[in-house]
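New to this. Help decode both lines:
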Amino acid sequence: MSSKSANDGSYTLTVTFSIETDGDTAQVNVQNRVSQAMPKLPEEVKRQGVPRRKPPPACLMVISVYSPEGTYDSIFLSNYSSINLLDTLSRVKGVSKVSNLGARDYSMRMWLEPDRLTALGLTASDVIAAIRDQNIQASPGAIGQEPAPSSQQFQYTLTAQGRLADVDQFKNIILVANSDGSVVRLRDVARVELGAENYGWYGQLNGKPAALLAVYQLPDANALDVAQKIRSEMDRLSQRFPQDLKYQITYDTTLYVETSIREVVITLLQALGLVVFVVFIFLQDWRSTLIPAIAIPVSLIGTFAALLAFGFTINTISLFGLILAIGVVVDDAIVVVENVQRHLADGLSPPDATRKAMEEVTAPVIATTLVLLAVFVPAAFTPGLTGRLFEQFAATISVAVALSSINALTLSPALCATLLRPPNPARRGPLAWFERGIDRTRKGYNVVVRALIRRAVVAIALVAAVFGATAWFGMTTPTGFIPQEDRGSIFIDMRLPDGAALPRTTAVLGEVETILENTPGVANVIAVGGYSILQGTVVPNAAFIIAVLEPWDERDTPELGLRAIMQNIAPKFAAIPQAVIIPFTPPPIPGLGTTGGFEFVLQDTESRSPQSLASVLNGFIFAANGEPQVTSVFSTFGANSPQLFIDVNRQLAKTKGVSIEDIFTVLNANIGAYYVNDFNKFGRVYRVYVQAEADRRSSPEDIGKLYVRSAGGEMVPLRSLVTVSSVLGPETIERYNMFRSATVNGNPAPGYSSGQAIAAMESVARTSLPDGYTYEWTGMSYEEIKAGAASSAVFVLSFIFAYLFLVAQYESWTIPVSVMLSVVFAILGAFVALKLSGVALNTYAQVGLILLIGLAAKNAILIVEFAKEKREAGESIVDAAENAASLRFRAVLMTALSFILGVLPLVLATGAVPQARVSVGLTVFGGMLLATILGVTFVPFLFVLLQRMRESVKSKKAEPPPASKPQQT
C-alpha cells in the first residue's frame, strides 16, 4: 500500500495486488475495508465523498482541444470538452475512463469583500448559511394526491424554484432582511461569477491554452482497437465544433505499438527470406527447397489459430516468438529432406528413399520436438509478470514446433516421395563452389572430432575450460528486466523551490516549452501547469510536460534518437536556475511505475519528524550520486516548504464568546475555498464556492484583517485571537506499507544495467542509512528483483525437464548427459555476445537462453541418436561416434545456419523496439553460433566418453561373482 497526503487537502491511497489476484475480488475487498473506515472520517470528507475505483493502465492517448485563434479561454475549452466530449468518449467500448488534465470545471464563485461584510456586521458564516438556505433542492409535493377524498377530481404537482441556476439568481440571495423593508443581498458584499472550481492547474498545447483529455483503456481491451474507435468518434464529434475550435490527438501510445509491430513483421519477412535462401544453397534444388519452405507457412498459420484459441493477441512478444520459430520449424523438414536426398544419391527410388529415411529420422524428430516442448513447460507456468511475458513466448514457439513436427512426419514425407528426384549436383558456378566448401569443412570437422576422441585428456580440459568461462561470464554479465525503448515521447517533471506560486511556475514553464519547440525531433509539447507527475498531486510549484517526438521514420539519424534528444535538452534545462527540470522516459511496461528508471522507497520505521526523514534522504541521495553505476538520483520529497501556523488563543476566544468553529470557518471561507453546496447548469451538477477576492488574501497580514462575530453580536478581529508564525513543513506526506516514506528515482549510468544500479543503491543503503530507516523497491524495480529469482528457477527447471525427458527417451542416465553438456557451449556463446555488445541479461535475453537449451540439445540429439543406433548395430563406440558425426554434419550445419541467419535481422534491428529485438537476437545468435562451431564438435567425444563409462558400469554389473573357495575343515 502507498498513500499521499497533499497540502491541498487531498489524500490518495493505492493498494497494489499481485498479478494473479482477481481484480474484481480485490476491488470488493478494498470497498469493504473503506466502508469500515468511513464512520471514523470527518464530516467534511464524508460530504465530498470517498471514490473507490480500479486504476486503469497508463494513458493510452491524449486529445488536445484548442482554439487556434485564441477565441476561447481555458475555462471554456475545459468545460466544452467535459460536457460534449468526455462522457461520449468514456462510453467507447474498451475505454476505462477519460480524464481532463488541468480541468477547470464550472463553479459558482462568490468572491467576498471582507471589509463590506464587516461594515454590515456580517461574516462568511452568514453568507454560507444564506446560500444553503436559499439554494436548496425543493420538492413541494402535489395537491390531491392519494389518499384523497372520493370527490377529488384533479391532482396538481407543485413546482417551485429549487436550486439556483445562473449568476443573477445567486447575486440576489438575501443575506439580511430588515423590518423597514431594506435588504442586503449577496451582490452587495461579493462579486459573483461563473468561474472555475480549481484554478490551481491548467493544460496547454505548444504554449497555448488547451483541454487535455487523457484516455485510459480497460486492462483486457485491445489498445489498437480502442484507439481506432476513439479516432472515429472524435471525427464525428468534431463536426459539431464551433468556429475556431480544433482537436489533435497529440500523444498516442498506439503509434509505438503499430510501428513496432510493423517493424517486427518486416523482420519476420526478412528472416523468412534468409531461411529459404540458406535451405536452397544447401539443397541446391528448387524441389527440395519447396518442402521446408512449405513447412513455414503451415506452422505459422496453425500457430495463429492456436494463439486465437488461447486468447492471445498479435503483439511484439508473440511476433518475436514467430521470428524465432521460423528458424526452428524448418529444422525437422530439413532433416527429412536431407536424409531422403542421401538415400536418393545411393540409387533408391523416391518412395523407397523416403521410407528408408523416415525409419532413421522419425525418432530423432520426435525426440527433438519433445525436448523443445519440455524446455518451455516451466516457462509457460511461471508466476508473476515474468511468467506473463514467458507465457506468450512459450505458447508461440511450442505450438509452432509441435506443428512443424507433425508436418515433418506427415506432409514432408509425402512431398518428398512425390516431388524429389535423384540429386544432380552442380558442376560449376557458386553452388559447386559452395558444395566443395562444405565437403572440405566436413573433412576438417571429421579430423577435429577424431583428434578429440583420441586425446581425451585434452578434450576434458577444454570442456572444463568452457564450463569455467561460462560460469565467469554468467556471474559478470550485467542483468536487467525490460530494456528501455524509444516510445516516441519524453516526460519532464519541473519543480520550482518550495513555496513558489503558480505565476512563477507559468513563467518558467514558458521557457521550457520554448526550448522543446526549438529542439529538432520534437513535434508537440503538452504541459500541465501546477501538477507533478512524480508526486501525483496538484502543487503550485510544479509542472508536467510531455515532449511528443516526431515519427520514428522521420528520426532516422543518430542525432534525432531518444538518447540524443535527451542529451541535447538536459544542459539547456540545467541552465534555468529558477527550477529543477528532470527529463525521463516513460516505463517500458505502461502503468508499471512512473519513470523508466528505478524507484527506491526510503522508509522511516520509527515515525520521526518529516524533517528527520528529509535529512536522511538528502544524505542518502548525495551518497548514491557518488556511485558510478547510477545517475540522476533525486527525490521530490522535501520538508522545507514555507507554511504559516495559525495559533488560536482559545481561552481568549471563549472569553469573548467567539466559537472556535466560526474562526476556522471564516478562515476557510476567505483564505481557502469553502465548498457550500451545488447548482445545476447544462444538465450537470457543479459546486458553489465562497472565497475572498484575490487581493484580500495575498499576504499573511490579510488574516488579521478578517472579523468573526461573537455571541453578543460584536465583530472581533482575528488579529486579536490568532497568532501567525512561519514554519517549515512538507508539501506532501507519503506512506508506503504504513511507514512514512520518500520515493527516490534515478537511472543506471551509461554503460551500466538496471541490475547493477539496483545493487549499487542497496549497497549505499546498507552503509549510509541510520538505524530505524529501511527501504523497499516499487514499480519496475520491484518486478525486476522478483523476475531475477523466477528466471533463474525457470532456466534450471527447463534444463532438468529436458534432461529427464531424454533419460526416458534413451532409458539411460548417461547418454542424455552428452546431449545436455552441449548446451553449455550455447550458453557461453550467448554470454559472450551479450558481454561484447554491452547488452544486459534482461527478460528477452533470458527467453533466448531457454530456447538455446532446446536448440543446442536438438543438434546434439541428431548426432547422438545416430551414434546410438550404429553402436547397437555392432560398430565400435569410436566408429559409431565418428560415422554419426560425419553423416549428420550436413543436416546439423544446415539447420543451425538457417536458424542463425534467420535471427540476424533481430541482431541488426533499428527503429522502434530495437533493444528488445537485439536482446533476444544477440542471445540466440551468439549461442547457436558457438554451439555450432564448438558444441557439435565436442558432442561425439562426449558420447564416446559417457558410452564407455556406461558400458563399463554395465559390464561390471553383468560379471558373475567369483566362486567362493571351499572351507577347509
About this structure: The chain has 28 helices and 28 strands. The radius of gyration is 37 Å. The mean pLDDT is 84. The first helix runs from residue 23 to 37.
